[in-house]
# Entry
Amino acid sequence: DAKAHGGDRASVFVPAMEVAARRADEARTMVVVALERGRVSLDYQPIVSADGAVEAMEALIRIDDPDRGRIGPAVFGAALDHPALARRVGRWVLEEALAQLATWHESGFTFGVSVNISPQHLLDPRFVDDVASALERLGPVPTRLVELEITETAALGDTRAVDDVLEAIAELGLTIAIDDFGVGHASLRYLRELPAQTVKIDQSFVRGMLTSAADFGIVVSSVQAALFLGRRIVIEGVEDAYLERVARSLGEVSLQGFHLARPMPAEAVARWLDLEGSRWHDRPRAEDPLF
Ligand code: C2E
Ligand code: MG
Ligand code: MG
Ligand code: MG
# Structure
């Protein structure tokens, strides 16, 4: 225990925990207030296939703060997995994102939507019901165009319970992505067993692969394994043209990152597709010389 290490340590350690707890409380209050005042919204970030088609928009939660402007989970992320809030926020995000997808399809767009699921909501006994009821927002849009992003760490947690939930989700016809792959040390055998169509390689490795041989190795071997297992791969955190080319050289992968598009409000998506969406067609292919 902390005392055994001497008073010095304990006195540093305890306040640090208190600070973290206070911050979590503040985050929670911020999210509750924002929900009540209608200040929660979603940004959307495109995911583009290897041949340049816009496959999906990932929904990313934001709060419109009167003082601080539009803020993201870096500020209030702790609240997203708070036991008392995870389900409330999770249901709101699901309903909002699916309604938005229905609106886009009414305007003739054909891409899908990806929704981040908090581990706490995933393991709530009402999760599958929550997903099923949100599906009513879709109208005629095919259910398979809705992808749920489950973090690798959550997928590795209570494996039995998670397996049952993912099976039920697959039965409803949704698709499943493993988010932040590589962070949770999932074995490749486990990847083989997971009912996930998509693997998203964590951006820390993607960014690291330019300077670290180890990170490069992790990305290359994860991509190779996922390709052999027939999974779709998304390379996250593609921040510049150079990373784009390196990522494309890994094989048939989809791309997501600031270099392609920053997350944007729903209203900006149609204009982005108009002005920039087509730019991602006819990009240099993987077989083109890199250097
Ligand atoms: P994530 O699902 O891995 O989402 C990717 C994050 O990376 C997003 O941050 C996105 O804005 C950011 N990003 C995208 N491209 C780049 C890039 O090229 N460079 C860099 N540096 N960053 C990039 P954001 O929106 O702050 O979200 C952070 C995390 O919060 C998400 O990570 C996800 O785990 C969680 N999150 C976001 N929205 C939701 C939500 O609606 N529900 C839940 N439960 N979690 C959410
Ligand atoms: Mg995600
Ligand atoms: Mg991710
Ligand atoms: Mg991440």
